[in-house]
Amino acid sequence: MDTRNPSAPPCAESRNAGKNHPHAGGLTHDNARHTTRFTVIGNHLAQHPELSGLAIGLAVHIQSLPTGARVDIKTLTTRFPEGATRIAAALRELEAHGYLRRARERIPGGRIVTRTISCNQPGRRSEGEPVCSAPARPVAAPERREKRAPKPLPAVPHPAQPAPALLQAATDLLAGLRRHDPRLLLSACDTAHLAPGVAAWLERDVSPGAVRHALTSDLPPEGPRRPAALLAHRLAAHLPPPPPFGVPAPPLPAVPSPLQTCDGCDRAFRAPEPGLCRDCRSDLRTAA
């Protein structure tokens, strides 16, 4: 009676709590295999570290729709409780990460429509479609200005008779503008472009001081964004007419010397440099 029945099932083993459930209280899956009406979603989307939950949900919904379905903001707003603002922001997230693309196409009849392309795996290409990839990192405005090629400077007038001495005087005048306003520091290339315009003014009997005043007065309070472009515009737009033929230019009025305080009697007098007034100088000569 001690013969064992080899066909009898073995005794059931007691379940070890830590064998099949190593993390008590963690997630378990109760999965059933789909055979109809299902969509394959990659973990790169479902577990995307940067997309919001609304963006991930919209991406899953859009990928489950048939070709030709409408996925504009108005349609999605009627489908989901979130408002148009949040849905529009979520769609921009998906565009930024390459899960959506929008392309404008002209259909028969001439009307332009927007076609939305859903990419279930950015970086891969389906047959007949271009590669779905996330767009480049948005570039800040200062970076765009740095990368964009600068516009050429406006044209400037040229003297009727080119003269090396006149061009040299114009170059010296432009180089000295930074002493009057540090914001007018010009490069050598900009100075070479502007020098013929200044020479054209000097050729028309305009004094260097008047040219300097025309170029430096009434500048924007925040400073010119492109000093050379502003100066080129002024040289061309405000170019004075030639002087009358045969009539010499009138002499410029003398600029009075500044007031000085006499070192001997503290009396105010005009002189180019500090020192003694005329009376004190006379008394000094008499005493000598």
Content of β-strand:
5-15%
- SS elements, strand count: 4
> Would you tell me the overall average pLDDT?
80
Distance between the termini: 156 Å
**Helix run count:** 12
- Overall geometry comes to elongated
Round the Cα radius of gyration to an integer and report it: 41 Å
- Which secondary-structure class do the elements indicate? mainly alpha
> Could you give the order of strands across the largest sheet?
1-2
User: Portion of residues in helices?
Assistant: 25-40%
Low-confidence sequence ranges: 12-19
Order of helices and strands: HHHHHEEHHHHHHEEH
Largest sheet: 2 strands, antiparallel
Can you describe this structure?
- The protein has 288 residues and is mainly alpha-helical.
- Among the domains are: 43-118; 164-237, no CATH class.
- 38% of the residues lie in helices and 7% in strands.
- It is built from twelve helices and four strands, in the order αααααββααααααββα.
- It has helices spanning 17-20, 43-46, 53-64, 73-79, 84-96, 141-147, 164-175, 177-180, 188-203, 208-216, 227-237, 278-287; strands at residues 100-106, 112-118, 259-261, 268-270.
- A hairpin with a 6-residue loop joins strand 3 and strand 4 (268-270).
- It is elongated, with a radius of gyration of 41 Å.
